[in-house]
Specification:
The chain is of the alpha+beta class. Helices cover 19% and strands 42% of the residues. The chain has a single domain, classed as Nonspecific Lipid-transfer Protein, Chain A. It is built from 2 helices and 5 strands, in the order ββββααβ. The protein has a 5-stranded mixed beta sheet. The chain starts with a strand and ends with a strand.
């Protein structure tokens, strides 16, 4: 929804932090003024599998391989 700020933290072989802010449309930003409203943390391997549709997110969340936080 409008005003959302999502931060994705990737670990492992490819470490990165991706921040997306929604202000009418979603866009990748360098930083948030007020911090994220939702967070996701996972390995870069799991990120690629999830975004490529090769893994179901539910078992990864239940196993603690994907950690969610904030307003979900």
């Amino acid at each position: 929804p409008d005003g959302s700020r999502v931060e994705v933290t990737l670990t492992g072989p490819v470490e990165a932090t991706i921040r997306v802010a929604v202000d009418g449309r979603a866009s990748v930003v360098e930083a948030f003024e007020d911090g994220p409203t939702a967070t996701l943390a996972m390995s870069s391997h799991d990120w690629l599998a999830l975004t490529g549709g090769r893994k179901d997110p539910v078992p990864l969340i239940e196993d603690g391989r994907v950690v969610l936080g904030g307003d979900l």
